[in-house]
Design a protein that fits this description.
Blueprint: H1 2-11, H2 13-35, H3 41-53, H4 64-72, H5 79-109, H6 116-128, H7 150-171, H8 177-191, H9 194-211, H10 215-220, H11 222-240, E1 251-255, H12 259-264, H13 268-286, H14 292-310, E2 311-315, H15 325-348, H16 354-380
Antiparallel strand pairs: 1-2
Helix pairs in contact: 2-5, 2-6, 3-4, 3-5, 4-5, 5-6, 5-7, 5-15, 6-15, 6-16, 7-8, 7-9, 8-11, 9-11, 9-14, 9-15, 13-15, 13-16, 14-15, 15-16
């Protein structure tokens, strides 16, 4: 039933056209990056697969992205095959992110009489939203989208699916969703556990608050328990076991407040505002205490930001900023939810109202700087 409704929603003509535009744009962007030597993590991840095929190093513990790219390359270690495979995986990932965003938007809007073309355009806009400028665009600022890190791009549709499925379970716990949540938790961890570690804090806390102690809570913690166990295995393999990339004891995790952020931002308060301006102002005008999806996305973003502020890796990965990714992911959730709700309010209120215009202008500003960032990325040849 869910699958049928989902397919029906995205099969409507305006959404098919927009999905084709998103796929074509993603194909062009990643194709340009890959075949014009734009410096990104995508090429670095291709080299990791090549190292594994040459027997130099094993694949990283968070294996799923590398394994999918390798399989789609026909088990080949050639650069050409891996570039084509990476291009396909990344393009489909962004397309899936858009399609899932459309589904979530339509579910949030419900029976509101809003044109599909408007919904489709708003969700496309969330795909290009970026931070306002001022310092390092990554690690200094925390944008809601990335185009240079392939594992995060690949993770996004699965993280979005986990976010929304867990939200539905919070709203109405049913046993049939438990296997789906288990599968999504495992996939998320095996790609990159960034979002799962946020979910492992936020979901149980909100479930307990909403539904209390009891058998229902224990059953619904099963996906979290399995994901935590898998995350601990990855932690052991990455940090406590030599895998060729990290020698045993060479790197770890420690509590170092603002250590990484202050390295890349000379003005952390501005970096915060530049990264979250739209959702902050939207929520200032339209905070709805009983809106669960707003609370869930906002709480997730706060927890993810707290992790970035407090935690850092030690050793040679000290300033790699790997605790940034969960904030990027959760910031996208918050942007999507706030943008869709702003569309809903704009359709029922006067467009000239400050409560509509001010967050609307900020949202368009984030999108404009996304376009300018992509232009700069392609012109400069470096994502920083």
């Amino acid at each position: 039933m869910f699958a049928g409704k989902f397919i029906y929603q995205i099969s409507e003509r305006p959404l098919l056209i927009y999905t084709a535009i998103v796929l074509a744009g993603s194909l062009a962007l990643f194709g340009y990056i890959l075949y014009n030597n734009i410096s990104t993590d995508i090429q670095a991840h291709i080299r990791i697969v090549q190292d594994a095929t040459n027997g130099r190093y094993p694949l990283p513990a968070n294996i799923l992205y590398y394994l999918v790219v390798y399989l789609l390359a026909g088990l080949s270690g050639s650069e050409h095959a891996l570039k084509l495979s990476s291009l396909l995986v990344l393009t489909i990932s962004v397309g899936a992110k858009y399609v899932l965003g459309i589904h979530i938007a339509k579910e949030i809007l419900g029976n509101q009489n809003i044109k599909l073309s408007y919904t489709g355009l708003v969700v496309i806009a969330t795909l290009i939203a970026f931070s306002f400028p001022g310092g390092n665009p990554y690690l200094g600022q925390i944008p809601p989208n990335v185009w240079h890190n392939s594992t995060t791009i690949f993770l996004m549709p699965f993280a979005l699916a986990l976010f929304y499925t867990s939200f539905l379970q919070l709203s109405n716990p049913i046993p049939n969703r438990i296997p789906i949540l288990i599968g999504l938790c495992m996939i998320n961890v095996l790609i990159k556990p960034s979002y799962f570690v946020v979910l492992a804090i936020v979901y149980p806390a909100m479930f307990l608050r909403m539904h209390g102690w009891g058998k229902t809570l224990l059953v619904n913690l099963a996906p979290i328990a399995i994901g935590v166990a898998l995350t601990l295995i990855l932690y052991f393999l990455i940090y406590l076991h030599s895998d060729g990339y990290i020698t045993k004891g060479e790197a770890g995790i420690d509590v170092m407040p603002f250590h990484v952020w202050s390295e890349f931002s000379n003005n952390i308060p501005w970096s915060f505002i530049a990264s979250f301006a739209f959702p902050i102002i939207y929520l200032a005008f339209h905070w709805e205490k009983q809106n669960l999806i707003v609370n869930y996305s906002a709480f997730s973003t706060i927890v993810s930001l707290g992790m970035f502020v407090l935690l850092a890796e030690t050793g040679y990965r000290e300033f790699h900023g790997n605790f940034l990714w969960q904030v990027v992911i959760c910031n996208y959730f918050l942007f999507l939810v706030c943008a869709v709700l702003l569309l809903e309010k704009a359709s029922s209120k006067k467009m000239r109202s400050p409560a509509i215009m001010i967050p609307g202008v900020l949202f368009l500003g984030h999108c404009l700087f996304g376009v300018l960032y992509i232009q700069g990325l392609l012109q400069s040849g470096d994502f920083l």
